[in-house]
Amino acid sequence: MDPRRLFRRALAVVGVLAGAIAINELAGKPLPLRWSIFRSAVGANMAKTGQVGDGREKAAVAYVLANARHGDLDDVIRVLDDFARNRRFLMNIGDEKGPILERAITRSAPKVLLEVGTYCGYSALRTIRAMPADARLFSVEISPANAAIARQIWEHAGVARRVTAIVGMLGDSGKTIDTLRRDYGFADGTVDFVFLDHTKSAYLPDLQRIIETGWLHPGTVVVADNVKWPGAPDYLAYMRANEASLWQTIEHEAHVEYQKLVKDLVLESDYLGARTS
Fold first, then answer.
1. Rounded Cα gap, residues 90 and 4, in angstroms
2. Which one of the listed residues 95, 192, 257, 264 is annotated catalytic?
3. Which is catalytic among the residues 197, 206, 264, 268?
4. I need a labelling partner for 160 at 20 to 30 A (CA). Which of 8, 173, 238, 244 fits?
5. Are 182 and 88 in contact (CB under 8 A)?
6. Could you confirm whether 178 is annotated as catalytic?
């Protein structure tokens, strides 16, 4: 992306957040919108390490271990929501958009699921709660530290055997894709569900990489979070341009996690399959 365009987008994000937070403060904080969200949006550390840089990810897992019942998936989700809503903002799908993800999984009843962007493992918990008992989730995460945190949380929730974290990225010249093929049996037509929640500018190129592998089949469902904010405009334009030819998409209007001022969009897309001449 053009650095000038990126800078303008960052300024716009800062402006929206600062204005929303100021209004919320003046109104007596009726909504859980905090400056920790602002810190997440502008922190340069995130691009380098996958973490905000203020220790919130480590604090989140410590909070779960101290407050959530061991082996209770629902309670771990509850405690993570409490942490993100009332203590420090976490960049996960959250309690408003999480049910959108769960409903998409319930509808499609997938057996093999691929998540791109693990962060602290929250969306994986919601995914596991909705997926069939014999299904398996594979979650790709660029940050080893985040993968370790997610594994701790999954272990505490009692679901570690149902999910595998793979440290890497789909755009690493084929290394992670080869790992998924070689070690985890990914092959033509084997992936039933994909969830995208990582670097927003990577949504479209990573989806195209997944299509090129041949792993998808007609009926595979792809869900993408944060399409409006921070925004994945190229991905949104691609889905709209290919509606009814390659994809059939539902656009779910929602809000950025844990507040009601900044609007967001979740895309739920059914793969129709590539046309053959």
1. 28
2. 257
3. 197
4. 173
5. no
6. no
CATH topology of domain 57-271: Rossmann fold (3.40.50)
User: If residue 171 lies in a helix (H) or strand (E), which one and from where to where?
Assistant: none
| Contact residues for 237 (Cβ-Cβ < 8 A; gap 6+) | none
Cα separations (Å) of 66 from 55, 59, 70, 73, 153?
Answer: 17, 10, 10, 15, 11
Active-site residue, from 24, 92, 146, 226:
226
Is residue 134 among the annotated active site residues?
no
**Predicted local confidence at residue 16, as pLDDT:** 53
Annotated catalytic residue, options 24, 81, 141, 200:
200
The CA-atom distances, in angstroms, between 169 and each of 21, 34, 196 are 33, 30, 12
Q: How far apart are CA 269 and CA 188, in angstroms?
A: 19
Q: How far apart are CA 226 and CA 224, in angstroms?
A: 7
Residue intervals in the chain for CATH 3.40.50.150? 57-271
Whole-angstrom Cα distance, residue 165 to residue 146? 10
Instruction: Reply yes or no on whether 45 is catalytic.
Output: no
Catalytic: 58?
no
Give catalytic status of residue 264 as yes or no.
Answer: no
